[in-house]
UniProtKB/TrEMBL annotation:
NCBIfam families cross-referenced by the UniProt entry: TRAP_fused
Source organism of this protein record: Agrobacterium albertimagni AOL15
Gene Ontology molecular-function annotations: transmembrane transporter activity
Swiss-Prot/TrEMBL keywords: Cell inner membrane, Cell membrane, Membrane, Transmembrane, Transmembrane helix, Transport
Transmembrane segments: 38-59, 74-91, 103-126, 138-156, 163-185, 205-224, 331-352, 373-392, 398-417, 447-474, 494-517, 529-556, 596-612, 619-643, 655-681
Protein's name in the database: 4TM/12TM TRAP transporter
Secretion signal span: none
GO CC, one annotated term: plasma membrane
Role noted for this protein: Part of the tripartite ATP-independent periplasmic (TRAP) transport system.
Main location: membrane
Amino acid sequence: MSVDKQELDQGKSVRQLTADELQEIEETFDPELRFRRLVWPLTVITATVLFLLSCYHFYTAGFGIPQATVHRGLHLGVTLLVVFLSFSAFGKKEMKPGAFTPLGLPLVDWILGIAGLIAALYVPWIYSDLAFRVGNPLPIDVIMGTVLIVVLLEAVRRSMGWPLPVIALLFIGYAYFGRAMPGIFVHPGASWSGIVNHLYLTSQGIYGTALGVIATYVFHFVLFGVMATRIGLGQLFIDVASALAGRYAGGPAKVSVLSSALLGSISGSSIANTVTTGALTIPAMIRIGYPRHFAAAVEAAASTGGQITPPVMGAVAFLMIEYLGLPLTTILTAALVPAFMHFFGVLVQVHLEARRLGLRGLSAAELPNAWKVLKEGWLSVAPLIVLIAILLSGRTPFSAAFWSITACIAVLIIQQVRASGVADGLRGAAHGVWEGFILGAKQSLSVTAAAALVGVVIGVVTLTGVGFKVAYMVTGIAQDWASSIHSLLDFLPFELMGVPTLTLLFTLILTAIVCILMGCGIPTTANYIIMVAVAAPILGLLGVEPLVAHFFVFYYGVLADVTPPVAMAAYAGAGIANANAFKAGNTAFRLSMGKALVPFVFAFQPALLLVTDNFTWTAFFLAFGGTILGIWALAAAVSNWLFAPLHWYERAGLVLAAILLVAPDLIATLIGILLMAPVAARQLLQNRRRSSG
């Protein structure tokens, strides 16, 4: 019933971190933002290239995209050049100009950046002859392809760290040493020229779908997110969330959940979301009595939920368009209920924790006025309305991005003119567009390099067929386990689960583990692309609908951001809260149980996604109601509180009830309700006695 005294004492002295401190935390846990400091005139050169890159994409979004290989090659080449201008090899922030550091940049970085630019543009340059080169590459083709692969490995290592380059190297090694592989993984192998031919000259590798989606869709929505934040949309979300949820028990935690859901709908990074909203919500949570690690975990769990929230979904929504061939409206509709379930799960736990600890809400003096907030900031919502309206109209996503960015620029001009007059306002707006376009391009650098390197992984998968080999191996293991468990349950007078159901259950568990492990240290988009190639075929062998399989691997890949030992979003929150990072990571994973539970529900009952085959409202409401009760029961069990403290056997009963409630079966749901009901009744009675006492 009480908070740890040391944490309470620390909470009394909690302070708001400065912008520099927040930036340092963000850079510590997000390598994508560890930009080096450049000296003049290299600062101007880099900024100009970034601005022109954004202008190019803004123009192509509105007036048409060039031929795919040309578009992708140009985007990749310029990106690689700027990556080596912006990220140092070993984290050194700044260097002075010298003989081996022209303009303050090491000579090797100039060589790598220019080599990457040339190698990336080489394929578009020979595009007219490409059909004659594929399968029979010239020596210069192999040289250029080798250069690009090496440069990509180093670019991603600098901008994201080691995990993805190591995975890519392992896949390349697998392609080359196929004859030496054990058992089911053996294959004829490929020569280096054959590997380069497939990865460099075909659309199955570096220049494939992953890079295409980044260059065609993701860049535009990253730019939109930056421009929307610049006109105050992010702050408006936080203020509205504070006005709506701040007054209730544990108010700052509920503000954190709601504001992160809103901000995450336009953000592509769970770490950036954690730092942006956590700068305000984490100190407030600590101040009213939440333990520091819990405050950090709440913000991290809520912020990672932004990656699964429409309309952007961490840019994965646009990848799904390409992979599934479905309209964006279908994908966004399918994402609605699972995203709601995640935030509902976090919200229930912060509410129960607040009740358990007896925490207050924020006073009226501590809260913004909702009417005043909307009156002053309503204009900043206009670009988001434009974005959603165009997306729902069925027009292309890049068209929606073009008009929503245009709306951001228009709002910025209006805001600046109102504040400073016409002349100064127009100058201020121009400066705002300049900075926004630079930052938008800057934030797309690492994800572009990663997407191109993921193309290497995808290329090896298509070259060797390893994805289907993994699928057969996993489903074989799951089927063996299912048969063994089914035999052990023969003593029951009824069949609890058949072998096919148990096989799917174990396959889902193994797939989830693979997704979490592969997601450690890899951003959402890159992880999703890899999982589509490696993990989604596993579920496809068991007849799981493609949309369901893609959502399953996507959700568990995102879960890696709050899964120790590499729970980067939780560690960023812990940095703000000055809390134990590992403890914050464990708690964030516990708070994200809705995100962990719901994929199993929609795998067994696809009606939860609203748009799958054979959808019925009866199946939907059974799954929806059972999941709501199941999340609440599990939240109570892990929080040790429903309406009053729980006995150990009540907690065990609630865990069992939660498992049965989320099962897509009416009998199991009714049994779960029967298990939960007496616990809830005793809790209500005990709470009433406590209140009267």
